[in-house]
Amino acid sequence: MKAVLLVGGAGTRLRPLTLTTPKPLLPIANQAFLERQLSWLASHGIDEVILSLGYLPDVFVEHFPGGSYGGIRLRYAVEDHPLGTAGGIRFASEGITERFVVCNGDVLTALDLTAMIEFHDAHGAAATIYLSRVVDPSAFGVVPTRADGEVIGFIEKPPPGAAPTDWINAGTYVLEPSVLDRIPPRLEVSIERETFPRMVETRGALYAYASDTYWLDIGTCETYLEAHADALAGRLGQTPAPGAREVSPGLWTQGDVSIDSTARVEGTCLVGMGAGVGSGCVLADAVLGPRVEIGEGARIERSVLLEGARIGGASVVTDSVVGPDARLGSHVVVTDQTIVGASADLPPHTRISGGRVRPGPTAEAYRPIEVGKG
Ligand code: GTP
After folding, report:
1. What is residue 126's three-state secondary structure?
2. How many domains does the chain have?
3. Do 241 and 204 reside in the same domain of the chain?
4. Which of 8, 94, 223, 274 has the maximal Cβ count within 10 Å?
5. Is the pLDDT of residue 363 over 80?
6. How far does the centroid of ligand 1 lie from the alpha carbon of residue 6, in Å?
7. Domain of 38: which CATH number?
């Protein structure tokens, strides 16, 4: 069975990380999010995936040099201008003649896709949408249904307290090829705002499969950190990352690492291959990517340091993300959902709270970055 993955977005809410790495290729606990998603699809019988690309397409092609991953054949459909979610699906689905799966490229889920496909077949729907339940649906597309699951409406981002249900469009669909005829070719069209709401007018065409299983949109700094906390807590699998071993209570490592005997680990931490942790450091619920170096006496708490990041002595990183190969001098303090871009270079004693630092060691480093679309 085939799947189309929508991975063409610019991921503006996760800038500056996404200025250099497309969101689906950002690691979650040291494994690219997309690899986790492909493994999940393979476990439900998907053997061919078409990546619907637009933003930074070459980075995807380079990431999978053999054009495959874990038994899944990969194909690439590169848009020359953004086609939106439905336009992207239409463009990527050329030649598909059987029912297929569509996934947003930023949703971590343990959904039983096999059961959802069975539900789709049993109802004879043209399209079935996976619904997840959230506490506050006001930031999502809310989808009320009849008792048997038939969709009766779409309400995008209802005002707080006004949503008729807390079940939201969770970004995974099973589609019959007939749905493609409803999407005009080569135009920018949104499936959640245009195609699906119009399908509601045809009785029996659109069903929803509601499931309360693990679901998280990793697209903001807060949820990106949450995904890591979930990986450390064992909510994404038995180990936080493939090949990780728990070498002492709460300390997971991948391959050879160097951790000074005076360093302290609190909570659960993951330390990637070739990383080094200096004397007197404290790691608390932290994820260190491969080749990360932590200087003497630094404290890393509820934070993610991506591959090759270097943290100077006595620095503190709390609730933040440090991009690949970024360098923090000594006594730097980075807190409150700060994101430091790839290869940025922060001088000693810099303090940043809730900021975004541009990639690269340039004088532009502190120029504000536009985050999100609004
Ligand atoms: P933000 O800019 O932070 O909102 O992130 P985003 O660009 O990923 O947008 P959003 O989260 O709304 O997109 C949901 C999914 O659709 C993501 O997996 C995107 O990669 C994908 N997507 C968004 N726009 C397009 C597009 O024009 N073409 C394709 N192929 N995919 C898209």
Report:
1. coil
2. 2
3. no
4. 8
5. no
6. 7
7. 3.90.550.10
Pairwise CA distance, residues 54 & 139, whole Å: 25
pLDDT band at 370 (very low <50, low <70, confident <90, very high): low
Domain assignment present for 371:
no
Centre of ligand 1 to C-alpha 104, Å, is 8
Average confidence (pLDDT) over 96-118? 96
pLDDT at 374: 32
296 belongs to a structural domain: yes
> With 0-12 CB in 10 A as exposed, 13-18 as middle and 19+ as buried, what is 275?
buried
Same domain, yes or no: 233 and 324: yes
* Average pLDDT of the chain to the nearest whole number: 94
pLDDT in tens, 329-350: 999 999 999 999 999 999 999 9
Q: Is residue 374 part of a domain?
A: no
The set of catalytic residues is 157
Among candidate residues 217, 245, 260, the one where a domain is terminated:
217
- Shared domain for 192 and 258, answered yes or no, is no
CB 232 within 8 A of CB 268: yes
Residue 372 within a domain: no
Which residues form ligand 1's pocket by a CB distance below 6 Å?
Answer: 6-13, 23, 52, 54, 79, 82-85, 88, 104-106, 219, 373
pLDDT tens per residue, range 46-91: 999 999 999 999 999 999 998 999 999 999 999 988 899 999 999 9
For residue 60, what are its two tokens? 């995807």
pLDDT for the residue 95: 86
What's the pTM? Answer: 0.94
Q: How far is the CA of 53 from the centre of ligand 1 (A)?
A: 10
* Residue 360 Rama label (left phi>0; alpha psi -120 to 50; beta): left
DSSP state of 150: B
On whether the CB atoms of residues 77 and 91 are closer than 8 A, the answer is yes
The CA dihedral of 345, 347, 352, 354, to the nearest 10 degrees, is: 0
Three-state secondary structure call for residue 362: coil
DSSP class of residue 275 equals -
Let me know whether 144 and 227 are in one domain: no
- φ, ψ for residue 312, nearest 5 deg: -70, 165
Query: Is the bond leading into 16 cis (omega within 30 degrees of zero)?
Result: yes
Which helix (DSSP H) or strand (DSSP E) does residue 39 occupy?
helix 33-42
Residues spanned by the domain of 318: 221-364
